[in-house]
Structure formats: structure tokens, C-alpha cells
Amino acid sequence: MATVEIPADMELVYKYPESLTEAHTHYCPGCTHGVIHRLIAEVLDELGVRERTIGIAPVGCSVLAYYYFNMDFAEAAHGRAPAMATGLKRVSPDKVVFTYQGDGDLAAIGTAEIIHAVNRGELFTTIFVNNAIYGMTGGQMAPTTLPGQVTTSSPYGRDVETAGFPIHMAELVGQLPGAAYVTRQAVLDVPGIRRTKKAIKLAFQTQLAGLGFSMVEVLSTCGTNWHMGPLEALEWAKEHMVEYFPLGDTKMTDRVRALKEGK
Amino acid sequence: MAKELWEGNAAIAEAAIRAGVEAFFGYPITPQTEVLEHFSKRLPELGRVFLQAESEVASINMVYGAACAGARVMTSSSSPGVSLMQEGFSYIACSEVPAVVTNIMRGGPGLGNVQPAQGDYFQAVKSAGHGDFHMIVLAPANVQEAIDLMVLAFDLAEKYRTIVMFVADGSIGQMMEPAEMPPMRPVRPPEERPDWALTGAQGRKPNIITSLYLGAENMERVNLRLQAKLKEIAANEVRWKEYSTEDADLLLVAFGTVGRVCQTVVREAREKGLKVGLLRPITLWPFPSGRIAELAEQVRGVLVVEMNAGQMVEDVRLAVEGRRPVRFYGRMGGPIPLPDEILPEMEKLDAECR
Amino acid sequence: MAKGMVLINEDRCKGCGLCVSVCPVHILRLADGRFNAKGYRPVEVTDPEACTGCAMCATICPDVVFTVYRQRRKPKQAAATA
Predict the structure, then answer these.
(1) Which of A203, A209, A244, B62 has its CA 20 to 30 A from that of A98?
(2) d(CA A204, CA A208)
(3) Which residues of A touch B203 (CB under 8 A)?
(4) With respect to CATH, is domain C4-81 assigned 3.30.70.20?
(5) Of B65, B91, B206, Cβ closest to residue A85
(6) Chain A touched by B54 (CB under 8 Å)
(7) Looking at the structure, do residues B231 and B91 belong to the same domain, yes or no?
């Protein structure tokens, strides 16, 4: 790139986060994983904890997240990231630990691990990316697939009579006493992305203050497996997912609220 | 340190504590539960980590996480619980983090029962999980050896960055014997954790621990590295004990509790004029194949005795390579083969090989 | 004189067009007949002078393509004399 002269009266307002590597992601064009990765990285930069943060990647589209985050990382077995994070954090209590998990990983195969980690009040943070589909394996029905939604394994649309209902993880997890802060956000437009970043920041601050488990469920898209363009996918998610998965906090303890308001 | 009376399961846990274990994650299952109970009492008073997990699946993944942090860590279970852990074994083996797992074997298959058995030999030695790997498998025959091998288990796990399984049948877990504990090793402070561990990328490049290698050549390279390590382990870490083999012309091979019973068989057989010797494998993987092959040249026949339908006997046959007859006697589901059952088998072998 | 300025790391761009959809002054478009190293039509600025440095493009970009500068606020009198 040619050197560009920055006028003296200009200040830098957005730069590449230090908590991301320079690797180009393998995600499809317009995939919101990239946005969520970036928000986590920005938050870790702002909190100044990159050098003591350890991430745990899931099995799913974000299985290679460790190439994109500029910090120590482990790759878990499918659904087991919360158990790994538990082991890691218990022997490294001064570190910042987070899991990054998709809907199949967290809400199907790893349901036991997340529920019990939350219930114990484990002091790590989970970023739960809900895009209502199995992305990596090519668009099968997820535990969060909407009623009637056509996928490669629900070709007639999800029939709730036989396949059950989409699972509300933020509500489920928020009920547990070990949860300090649980919220559902969406990265489907600029205001939503800004709110999601604030939520991710509060989640990590909750961990740093030792207040309990924190999770941000993020409504996300999968244009490729929804068979839509990037913009159309955002609109579809706004129209259909937000109705089924309402946005907002499902748990905020008084101490987390005080933390939030004190900032 | 003086000898004290120790129950096998508590001794295993205490030996791990003396060896500097920093964390234990586990789930109750008979006949292993006393291991977990001992840790639950001792680790908190020492300021170390004890956590009762929601399942064996979670336990092994907690072990995996703590091992990634470079902590000395273990879990324990019994047969059905160990089956649940197999996913984790494979990930740990491929990721090359050190971990120790204890299996206090019970009767199977299925839910089986809670009687002592050795039916998990194949699982431990040959099919610990998906993909090409082996665990180092240590099999004690008494409480003192259980203590000594537990300390060794951590040293081997860390030396080779591998998974070590400690297998004992329920009778060793439940029996009480006088034994001597090693002195308490200091716990390694967090700042001395190994340089590959996930400790936060402070002033260095990030460490990544993964078992995912998408490219064919990449995955093969990792496999070749793992195989080279296994070869090194096989060359350096084979352990066994021999009893009266110097002049033996009949050989018994047995491990764990049965190995101990067979010491009596050797004595009684010799009283009857049969020159019987015993080889008791201590490492089930790597297996003492070389020594068994040597002894096969010396003896007329081999009898393998196990508390299963005949599992280790396959490895003995592979070692003997048809040089001599290899016969098997076993009991399943709880009964321990006794000398007066084994001795007639020995006499049959003697007659057959005359 | 532009109030803001964006730098575009073209090779990171996957041409998803999300930035184009959110730019409030409509000065972004996907290149026509030009491709980056990945084979996508990268985003480009049509009218740099109109940029406000609002960073909405950077906020929605999944691939961290943008670096954004914005004109400093005029220093207050007190600060200027200090």
C-alpha cells in the first residue's frame, strides 16, 4: 500500500486491534464471526489484558479462531470448551479465560458442560454465537434453528412436533445462581454491534472483578447456509431471529449492575 | 518414612498428592470413589484444586484444560466412566499435554458390576480412543507398587508430554496393606510452568494447543512425530518383574492382582517339581515383548492368566511368534483366579509340552 | 476539507458490501472490474472529501479492512493557552 499522509489535524479513531493477528479469516464474505472476533479483540485491548488472556475455540465454523486471536489459545473437543475453561481457570485464577462457542457446540452437544460450568459460577466468560444453523458441516438443523426453517437436515422445515423447539440458552443459563451476567445481543446493524461490544466488555469486567460467570449470546448470520447475500442475511435475522430470541439481559446481579453503573 | 496401613484407593490419591498434583477433577464411581473422596479432603487443606465434575466427559476435559495450563493434573474413574473419557484421551494424546488417568477396573461389559476385573486391557492398551496413539499404561500388583507407580506416572507424563493411564483392578483399590509413602514434593509454582503451556502471551508469541491439522501432509507430520515419541517410549520405558525365571522351563505371564496370585502358583508348582517362572508386566504399554520373546526360547510353553476372556494373551502370542504353545486361563466378572485353579492348567501345559 | 478519512486494506476485503450499506454519506462502493488478491471486488471510496470519519464502515466490517481518522475537535481556549 502506498504511504498515505495523514493530515495533522486528524486523529486515529479506529485502528486494527492488537488482540487480533494479521491472518485473514476463512469466514465467508459478510460472516458476522469476523465482527464478533473484532469486538472481543477491541475489548481485550481496552481492558489491557491481552497478555494474560487464554481463549478456547470450539468445533464449528470458528474452530480456527486461534489463528485470528493474538493470544494463547486452546482448541476444545466439540461442546467441551466450558469444561476445559473450568480446568484452565481453576489452575490459573489470575488469567482471563473465555470460550467462543457456536449453537451446535454450546446448545446441543455441550449442554451439560455449559449448564454445570454456569451453575458452579466458574469465573470465565462465554461468547455464544447463535446463527440458527450448523455452518461448518454445511447447513444442518441446529438446536436454535427456527420452527419451519429449512436446512439440509430439516428439508421440510423444522417440525417442532418431531424435532423440538429452538432452545433459549440465555434464558436457561440466566436462571442459574452461578451466573452473574448473561445477555443476548445482535450484531445485525451498527447500533446492535455497539451494544454487543458494551456487553462483551461488561462480561469480561464481570470476570475480572470475580463476580461470577458471564455470557453474551450474540445473534449472528450464516448467509451461505441460509442461501442469502450478506445484507439479506442481516435483514432476515432481524426479521425472524430477534422475534424468537428477544434481545436484552437475562441476568445481571446487583454487583454487576453496580460495576456497570460505576463505569 | 515408616510403613503405614493404607487402603489402595486412598494410597493412590495420597501418592499423587506427594508427587505434586495440583488439581483433581473426577466423578464418583465404584470401586474408585475413595480416590475422589481422599482428594476431596486433602486437596482443599493443601490449597490445591479439587472439583467434582458433572460427568466423566467433563472431568477429562477439565483435566485437558488444566494440563494445557501446564499444571500437574489427574482424574480417576472405573471402567464405564473411562469409556466416557475416551474422547478426551485422544485429544490429549494429539495435543501432547501431560495428564494422568486412573482406572480402577470393574466387571463389564455394560454397567457390569463393581467386582475386580481386567476386562479393560484392550481399551487401555489398544483402543484408548480414535486415531493412532497409545497411552503409557502402568499396572501395579500391590499397594506399595501403586504408590510408586503413581509418582512415576506424573514423571513419565511430563517427560514425554503424553497421557499415562494407571490401571488397577478393584481388589487393589479396596485392599489394605502396609506401605511407605514418598516425601511430599513441593508443588511447582505457576511461574515455573513449561514454556509450551497456556500462561498468557506476555512478551512472547502466543502458544496454541490444538489437535486439528486440516492438511493431509500436516496431519501426517504430526502423526509421524507422535509415532517417533511412542517409539522412544517403547525403547526406554518397558517395565516388568520376573520371579524364578532363571531356570524356568514353563512361563506364567500375568499382570496386576493375578500377577500377584501367580507368585503363589510358582511356589506351589516348584514344590510339585515343575520349573515354573513368572513374568509380570508392569507397563502394559509398552509391553515387555522383547523379554517374553527371549524367555520363549528358554521355556517349553507359556500360560497367560487374566481376569478377562483373554486379552493380554494376544500380545504374549505376538511376542512368542509361534515359537512355543501359549495357553490361556481366565475368569470374568469378579472371581479372582486362585492358585488351585491355575496349577492344574500349568500341569496341563507341562504335559502338552513334554 | 474532509472531516474524516478512511484507509482501506484492500487485500483483507471480501467484497461483502456491508460497509456500503451503512455509510451515511454514501461514498463507498465495490470496485467495478477490479479484483483484489483474493478475487473479490474490494471496497473503494468515491468521494474522500465527503468522509465524516464516523467509523460506521469499520464497525460493521467483518474483516477489519478500515482504519479511520477524524478531525480533532477545536481545542478549547483554556487548553490552547495552557
Answers:
(1) A244
(2) 6
(3) 51
(4) yes
(5) B65
(6) yes
(7) yes
Q: How many CB atoms lie within 10 A of CB B216?
A: 8
Size of interface A-B (CB pairs under 8 A): 139
Between CA A104 and CA A139 the distance in angstroms is: 11
pLDDT digits (tens), chain B, 354 positions: 689 999 999 999 999 999 999 999 999 999 999 999 999 999 999 999 999 999 999 999 999 999 999 999 999 999 999 999 999 999 999 999 999 999 999 999 999 999 999 999 999 999 999 999 999 999 999 999 999 999 999 999 999 999 999 999 889 999 999 999 999 999 999 999 999 999 999 999 999 999 999 999 999 999 999 999 999 999 999 999 999 999 999 999 999 999 999 999 999 999 999 999 999 999 999 999 999 999 999 999 999 999 999 999 999 999 999 999 999 999 999 999 999 999 999 999 999 999
Q: Are residues B230 and B246 in the same domain?
A: no
Give one word for B73, left, alpha or beta, with left for phi > 0 and alpha for psi -120 to 50: beta
List the single residue in A10, A14, A34 with the smallest CB-CB distance to C66. Answer: A14
Residues B152 and B274 occupy one common structural domain: no
Contact: chain B with chain A (3+ CB pairs below 8 Å): yes
The residues that bridge with B281 in the sheet, in sequence order, are B240
Helices A190-208, A33-47: axis angle to 10 degrees equals 50
Instruction: Check whether residue B158 and residue B283 sit in a common domain.
Output: no
* Grid coordinates given for A170: 440465555
Contact B208 A73 (CB under 8 A): yes
Domain count across chain B: 2
Q: Chain A within 8 Å of C37 (Cβ-Cβ)?
A: no
Q: Dihedral of CA B237/B243/B246/B252: which sign?
A: negative
Q: Distance of CA B346 to CAs A53, B270, C9, Å? A: 62, 11, 79
B202 part of contact set with chain A, CB < 8 Å: yes
Residue B302 lies in a domain: yes
- Assigned CATH topology for domain A33-262: Rossmann fold (3.40.50)
Output the pLDDT for position B15: 98
CB–CB contact A10 C67 (8 Å): no
Q: Tell me whether residues A12 and C61 touch, CB distance under 8 A.
A: no
Contacts of B95 in chain A (CB under 8 A): 74-75
C-alpha cell, A82: 466450558
Nearest CB among B51, B58, B198 relative to A88 is that of B198
| Residue contact A11–C70, C-beta within 8 A | yes
